[in-house]
């Protein structure tokens, strides 16, 4: 994952310390609910990668229908950031909940096989992440806007 910043490509590191917390998964399966809700939780209240511009352009090799740009909810008392995801039981691809925490993007596949991603609206100050569904798990690239 790369960010185009001042005409230069800056590589973003994925978050290495995050957890996924499921909510009553077994209970829901027992009573036939087809959906599971869980949280993707990143440690610390702020991403290390800080940006001061709001109109961003990202570049990636990941297929853009397998990623979302999201706003994290910050819990200062627990020193963490999180986003909720809801998916069908047995699936590893989910939808961000509530939907307002996910941002609409435009993507363009370039001849090199790279996808250019632009946000349809600029972001405001806060903590964000790019969540990529990847091999039965997720990759998370986080950043903050100030």
Task: Please characterize this protein's 3D structure.
The chain is mainly β. Helices cover about 5% and strands about 55% of the residues. The strands form three sheets. It has a five-stranded antiparallel sheet with strand order 2-1-6-13-12, with no helix packed on it. Strand 12 and strand 13 (about 115-120) form a beta hairpin. The relative contact order is 0.27. Mean pLDDT is about 80; it is low at about 25-30.
What tags apply to this protein structure?
single chain; 146 residues; mainly beta; five-stranded antiparallel β-sheet; globular
Topology readout:
Layout: E1 2-5, E2 8-11, E3 18-23, H1 25-30, E4 35-43, E5 50-51, E6 57-60, E7 67-71, E8 73-75, E9 80-88, E10 95-97, E11 102-103, E12 105-109, E13 115-119, E14 126-134, E15 137-145
Quickly describe the structure:
This protein is mostly beta strands and 146 residues long.
Global outline: globular
Q: What does the oligomeric state look like here?
A: single chain
Secondary-structure element order, as H and E?
A: EEEHEEEEEEEEEEEE
- In this structure, how is the largest beta sheet organized? 5 strands, antiparallel
Number of helices: 1
- Portion in helices: under 10%
Give the strand line-up of the largest sheet: 2-1-6-13-12
Average pLDDT, all residues: 82
Instruction: Give the DSSP E fraction (strand runs of 2 or more residues).
Output: over 45%
Number of β-strand runs:
15
The low-confidence runs, each spanning 5 or more residues with pLDDT under 50, are 25-30
Q: Rg to the nearest angstrom?
A: 16 Å
Report how far apart the termini are: 20 Å
